[in-house]
């Protein structure tokens, strides 16, 4: 069975680790972990771009990673809405391990306890663009 989307590659747009004091409060709208997804289709829906923006507040540090992946859309019979769902759900599942890895490596540079982000059920992005 041929995959619906295949990863061409990804690039890191932003990689940030910032120390925060215990006394610093999160903005009222900020959660300890949040992620936003944004996508764009080009070339007659044959190429999709997915951007993941992730923020994590843990162990007196703020981590922010923005990745953008490029995906070939292999099935030309799909509607734009179907492609959107595959990119949001499957594309996020493909890119999220790179975010986890980056945060783990960066956190280990400053501490003996590296941060290991949990796995993520990407089906949540069927209905939402933010968690």
Which tags fit this structure?
single chain, 131 residues, alpha+beta, Bacterial Protein-export protein SecB, 4-stranded antiparallel β-sheet, 1 helix, 4 strands
Description:
- The protein has 131 residues and is α+β, with helices and mostly antiparallel strands.
- It has a single domain (5-126), classed as SecB-like (Bacterial Protein-export protein SecB, Roll), CATH 3.10.420.
- It contains one helix and four strands.
- Strands 1-4-3-2 form a four-stranded antiparallel sheet, with helices on one face.
- A hairpin with a 4-residue loop joins strand 2 (33-42) and strand 3.
- The protein is elongated.
- It starts with a strand and ends in a 23-residue tail after the last helix.
- The relative contact order is 0.23.
- The model has no long low-confidence stretch (mean pLDDT 90).
- This is Preprotein translocase subunit SecB.
- It comes from Candidatus Enterococcus palustris.
Write the layout of secondary structure elements.
Blueprint: E1 5-19, E2 33-42, E3 47-58, E4 61-73, H1 80-108
Antiparallel strand pairs: 1-4, 2-3, 3-4
Summary?
By secondary structure, this protein is α+β, with helices and mostly antiparallel strands. The chain contains 1 helix and 4 strands; from the N terminus they run ββββα.
